[in-house]
């Protein structure tokens, strides 16, 4: 008996030793950054990154990136859907990487972490690197928090949203591409009632929307109606939230009309993005509002299901059709987030410069092509006009697509997609920039907004849906706005006005 | 006869326990040291993973900032508690949580017992086993799948159920977006997923019921219903009470994942419960201190309910869980 006890104890101690040894090893691997002082030595870089596709990519592209940047890169992917909790817990437990992709800059803990000095301030170093030096002053200011730039901003197109319509259906019902909101309503009506797919059944709707008031139809239609981008600022510095404007109510009425008449999928308030796109591709509806470049995906998804699908893009819809009324909201003012470098991982200036060099290299032409289209003649081919065509769609989706959202810069490259829809959407997105409405509060500070903003936003989001679905009337909505103000909204307004004044000086 | 004798032994043991001096206890510790050594890993597990982390609860009294740590964050006393109890959302959360809890106890809890009793009466062995296996299966599906399946069935845009209603000439019902249907859908999903699995323990308890008792009852002319009522049910009563108390203990754990998937802008007033609120406030908005406060409150309510029900069980002459 005694012997057994001894044996057991010995075993326990052994396993404890093994466990701690493992722990140490992991620790050593976690804090990886080349400590060698030789500038030519391979830098090793860890990157906590957001994944927008269903599964992480294979190693093919990473190998190429490593080759070209002379670095050893290790990605940790966070699915986009759970980015808030994952980033928050990573920040809270200080388990970060050399590069951290922060896309939710209005989240309070992200903001507080940035302001607390957890990350390097990079602005003084930018001009040492050719690609980073090119980041415009406007972008730098928009991406700053309390006047300081805590990372390399993702440079995206200003305004990517628009309306995608089934051209073949338009021809069938004999209507032109709509230019006004009323015409768009007409199209939705015809698509619902005139059996555009010709199957003799009443099984189509005009719009196919999803449960998203921002990236779905609502905000874009609101822009066409003249709703400000989150905040309106008057000449004397008074701030008004978008939902306290007449145009916002008009947009709700428009959506309500679509809903009441059945011109929109009736369960849009609980429809997920994938369901939305799939149903559109299956020919259940003819109008899609979202990012213009989604048109290419929609067409691809419709292959074999709706082979006669023809799509047309519209970005010039207004209340009356006059050019002067054109507006389109700019998502995050063209900033897709920050590539931030925590001081706990990137220990000193020399290391910071190595990581910055890496980010700088990612913005080169060939790296852009690599992260966008993949490897030449494996994933895509390119003609003499720099028009790229994906030759192996499945392989591209698996190996290349996940990197699209990791590109620090997405604009101003020569190589472009040969797909006519993609080319058209690129053109329209560029055109959108001229009419883009910025969010004047984007880089302003409001303590209340960062701590309670998203809680408060729920009041408005809920009320907006309820109004559209007819569960509350205008008075009910006004009450919700009052409730928002009472619960902290008034404080947000006051704080923004203060910050706006301070920034103006 | 047998019963009374064991009761007497029990009584004796209880009396002996009270009088046993400390020296004796130490001796028994020595005598059974191997047994104590064997429970050591379990005790360590609870200390390290359950009790030590509780220290983190102090952040409920701080304005906790991760990079300042527990030592560096400012103390704010009961600020977060005051915020919790004065916010209008508090009563919404409390009533939503309690109503769903009550539904769980009143509607869901008796069902597995009834099902187990019914299965027990099935004489065809193969059929009984097949039914058991089939009703277990949903337990192994994740909530994501179950909620997705319900979505496909209940959506207004071509959902099977609504198409059936339409075919019958009835108006479509928007199950997913109306607050009135949320609780029905919720409890329906819980029943579908967990009913079969919950019968396992009852079935196990039923199998150990002394068959002599049934024979005796038959001699007295009892039919099936009578046997179930007077023999089976009393025999599994301790199991039922224990499970009920345990169930009440997890009162406020209504399944975060499940509710989070059902929650949307239109049913929030009845669907937001403590778990979902903690997730959005704490993990998504990063208000770690505040959400700790909410969690702490939830835990306290659960503890009080367990203690109450345990006392109640003892009053009714059952053993309770502690």
UniProtKB/TrEMBL annotation, chain B:
It holds the Pfam family BPD_transp_1. It comes from Paenibacillus cookii. The keyword Membrane applies. Its main location: membrane. Keywords: Membrane, Transmembrane, Transmembrane helix, Transport. Residues 94-309 form the ABC transmembrane type-1 domain. The chain crosses the membrane at residues 34-52, 98-119, 131-154, 195-214, 235-256, 288-308. It is found in: Cell membrane; Membrane. The keyword Transmembrane helix applies. PANTHER family: POLYGALACTURONAN_RHAMNOGALACTURONAN TRANSPORT SYSTEM PERMEASE PROTEIN YTEP (PTHR43496:SF1), PROTEIN LPLB (PTHR43496). Belongs to the binding-protein-dependent transport system permease family. This is Protein lplB. It is a multi-pass membrane protein.
């Amino acid at each position: 008996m005694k012997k057994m006890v001894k044996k057991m104890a010995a075993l326990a101690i052994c396993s404890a030793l093994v466990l701690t040894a493992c722990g140490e090893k992991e620790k050593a691997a976690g804090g990886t950054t080349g400590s060698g002082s030789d500038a030519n030595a391979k830098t090793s870089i860890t990157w906590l990154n957001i994944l927008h596709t269903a599964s992480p990519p294979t190693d093919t592209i990473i190998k190429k990136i490593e080759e070209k940047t002379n670095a050893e890169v290790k990605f940790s992917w966070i699915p986009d859907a759970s980015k808030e909790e994952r980033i928050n817990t990573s920040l809270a437990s200080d388990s970060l990487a050399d590069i951290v992709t922060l896309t939710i800059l209005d989240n309070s803990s992200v903001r507080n972490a940035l302001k607390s000095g957890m990350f390097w301030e990079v602005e003084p170093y930018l001009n040492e690197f050719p690609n980073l030096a090119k980041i415009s002053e406007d972008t730098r200011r928009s991406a700053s928090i309390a006047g300081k730039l805590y990372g390399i901003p993702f440079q995206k197109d200003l305004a990517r949203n628009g309306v995608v319509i089934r051209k073949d259906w338009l021809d069938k019902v004999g209507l032109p591409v709509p230019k006004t909101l009323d015409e768009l309503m007409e199209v939705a009506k015809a698509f619902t009632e005139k059996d555009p797919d010709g199957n003799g059944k009443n099984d189509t709707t005009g719009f196919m929307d999803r449960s998203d008031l921002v990236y779905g139809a609502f905000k874009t239609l609101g822009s066409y109606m003249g709703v400000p981008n989150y905040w309106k600022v008057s000449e004397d510095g008074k701030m008004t939230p978008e939902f306290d404007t007449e145009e916002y109510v008009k947009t709700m009425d428009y959506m309500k009309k679509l809903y009441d008449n059945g011109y929109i999928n009736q369960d849009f308030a609980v429809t997920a993005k994938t369901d939305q796109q799939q149903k559109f591709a299956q020919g259940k509806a003819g109008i899609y509002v979202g990012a213009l470049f989604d048109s290419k995906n929609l067409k691809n998804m419709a292959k074999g299901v709706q082979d006669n699908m023809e799509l047309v893009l519209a970005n010039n819809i207004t209340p009356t059709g006059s050019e002067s009324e054109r507006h389109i909201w700019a998502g995050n003012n063209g900033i897709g987030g920050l590539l931030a470098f925590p001081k706990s991982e990137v220990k000193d200036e020399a290391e910071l410069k190595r990581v910055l060099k890496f980010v700088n290299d990612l913005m080169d032409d060939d790296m852009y092509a690599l992260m966008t289209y993949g490897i030449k003649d494996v994933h895509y081919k390119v003609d003499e006009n720099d028009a790229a065509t994906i030759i192996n769609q499945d392989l591209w989706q698996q190996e290349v697509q996940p990197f699209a959202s990791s590109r620090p810069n997405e604009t101003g490259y020569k190589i472009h997609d040969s797909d006519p829809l993609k080319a058209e959407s690129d053109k329209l997105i560029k055109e959108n920039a001229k009419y883009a409405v910025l969010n004047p509060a984007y880089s302003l500070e409001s303590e209340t907004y960062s701590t309670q903003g998203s809680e408060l936003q729920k009041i408005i989001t809920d009320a907006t849906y309820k109004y559209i679905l007819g569960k509350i009337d205008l008075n009910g909505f006004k009450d919700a706005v009052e409730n928002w103000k009472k619960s902290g909204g008034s404080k947000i307004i006051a704080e923004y006005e203060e910050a706006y004044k301070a920034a103006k000086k | 006869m047998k019963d009374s004798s064991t009761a007497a032994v029990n009584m004796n043991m209880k009396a002996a326990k009270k009088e046993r001096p400390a020296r004796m206890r130490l001796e028994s510790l020595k005598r059974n040291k191997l047994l104590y050594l064997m429970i050591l890993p379990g005790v360590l597990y609870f200390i390290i993973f359950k009790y030590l982390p509780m220290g983190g609860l102090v952040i409920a009294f701080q304005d906790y900032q991760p990079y300042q740590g527990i030592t560096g964050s400012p103390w704010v006393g009961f600020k977060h508690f005051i915020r919790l109890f004065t916010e209008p959302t508090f009563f919404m959360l409390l009533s939503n949580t309690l109503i769903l809890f009550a539904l769980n106890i009143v509607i869901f809890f008796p069902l597995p017992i009834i099902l187990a009793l019914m299965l027990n009466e099935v004489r065809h062995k193969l059929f009984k086993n097949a039914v058991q296996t089939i009703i277990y299966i949903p337990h192994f599906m994740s909530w994501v799948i179950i909620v997705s399946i319900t979505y496909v069935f209940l959506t207004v845009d071509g959902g099977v159920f609504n198409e059936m209603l339409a075919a019958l000439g009835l108006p479509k019902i928007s199950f997913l977006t109306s607050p009135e249907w949320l609780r029905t859908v919720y409890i329906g999903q819980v029943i579908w997923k967990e009913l079969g699995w919950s019968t396992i323990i009852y079935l196990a308890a039923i199998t150990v019921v002394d068959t002599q008792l049934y024979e005796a009852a038959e001699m007295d002319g009892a039919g099936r219903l009578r046997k179930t009522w007077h023999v089976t049910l009393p025999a599994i009563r301790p199991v039922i009470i224990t499970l009920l108390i345990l169930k009440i203990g997890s009162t406020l754990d209504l399944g975060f994942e499940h509710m989070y998937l059902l929650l949307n802008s239109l049913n929030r007033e009845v669907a937001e419960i403590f778990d979902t609120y903690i997730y959005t406030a704490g993990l998504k908005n990063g208000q770690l201190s505040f959400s700790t406060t909410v969690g702490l409150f939830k835990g306290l309510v659960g503890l009080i309910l367990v203690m109450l029900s345990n006392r109640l069980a003892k009053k009714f002459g059952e053993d309770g869980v502690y």
